[in-house]
Amino acid sequence: MNPQLTARRLARPVDESMNLLNDVSRDALDPAYAAASPRRRRWWMVGLAVLVIGLMIGGSVADQLRAAPAEQLEREQLIQRVEQAAAASDAQRERITQLTRANRALSDGALANDPDAAQVQGQIDQLDPVTGMRAVTGPGVVLVADDAQDAQRSGSSVVDIDIRQAVNGLWQAGAEAIAVNGHRLSSRTAIRVAGDAITVDYRSLTRPYRIEAIGDSSALLRAFPSTGGGNWWAYLKQNYGIRYDLSPAGSLQLDADPGLGVRVAQKKA
Amino acid sequence: MFAIVGLILGIALGIYLEPTLPVGLQPYLPIAIVAAMDALFGGFRAYLERVFDDRVFVVSFTSNVLIAALIVWVGDQIGVGAQLSTAVVVVLGIRIFTNAAAIRRSLFHA
To answer: What is the DSSP string of A221-234?
Structure first.
């Protein structure tokens, strides 16, 4: 073995690979300080450098202080705009309901003497409550769902698929009309999620979620737990602590779905 | 003493005057501040160990700030700005804590 090589290898410290950390902590005090000679302390120079550092820190702090109220203002303005848009949307829905009623009155008047029209209108009248075109009242069940009590920590909150499962389960159990937080469900209803909020027909819901279903109360209560939706919710309740409560209701009133309307119309020949 | 007064004066002036950097340099201000803090702690430790030299202090402060900003800027150009910024902060943080521990030992003998 080459003696020089062996000597050099022995001279290397055992923790050679730790050099980075050792160097960083050993050189924390710049070695130039120890090596500097003569040592001078011109305080004006130090003062100047320190002043610059202070300006940097102060400028950064001032920037943060200045930005905070501007961000708060922006946030408040956005909230205001969201609320205005929601109010406008509600007003439009009201108008749709009124116009639908007016249309119905007009069509009744115009088709009064037409027996074919009367038959078709009869069919429409039969389908209206089922499709969601008309407000309905009747006995049924109410399913109230809420996030787990420690939702902030565990993240166990109700999401859109849970609501969809509940609704499907209720349909399967024999519900005749369903509404979620007052929004009537129809074949055109979308239950989705936007950010953190569940939306029904693009309207955000706030918890707790109240699903009302009209139908035979006792039959619904009996059949729901064995449906897919019922099993889903039993699993959620057991494993995630999501709160849900299914109870009968004597009389429920569900509004019509304003989102339904005539899409295709043809003039009678 | 002079230095501490200067620092407080600088911070007060900074908050009052609200100096603004050119927009291109503003993202590098935080890393520059951390680099400046490293130089500051190093200077204070040198003072307590009676090896303080003003030239070393000014040079270390200037070079720290410039090199830290340069590294982060290069990182931004090649797309790893956040990672390089983290690396710079880690190294400066270790140095700051090492110096702070030495200062604590000098000041409080504990």
So the answer is: HHHGGGSHHHHHHH
C-alpha distance from B96 to closest chain A C-alpha (Å): 7
pLDDT in tens, A186-231: 888 889 988 888 998 888 888 889 999 999 999 999 999 999 999 9
Structure tokens at A158: 């109700």
Rounded to whole angstroms, the Cα distance separating A222 from A229 reads 13
Q: What is the DSSP secondary-structure string of A118-143?
A: HHHHHHHHHHHHHHTSS-EEEEEEEE
- Checking ipTM against 0.95, whether it exceeds it is no
Tell me which residue in B14, B37, B91 faces A62 most closely, judged by beta carbons: B14
Q: Which of A180, A194, A204 is nearest to A257 (CA)?
A: A180
Residue A126 CA to residue A128 CA, distance in Å, equals: 6
Q: Supply the Cα-derived Rg of chain B in whole angstroms.
A: 15
Give the residue from B27, B62, B28, B26 showing the smallest Cα distance to B42.
Answer: B62
**CA–CA dist B92, B101 (Å, integer):** 14
Q: How far apart are the first and last CA of chain B?
A: 23
Best residue of A19, A50, A63, A65 to probe chain B, by most B CBs closer than 10 Å: A50
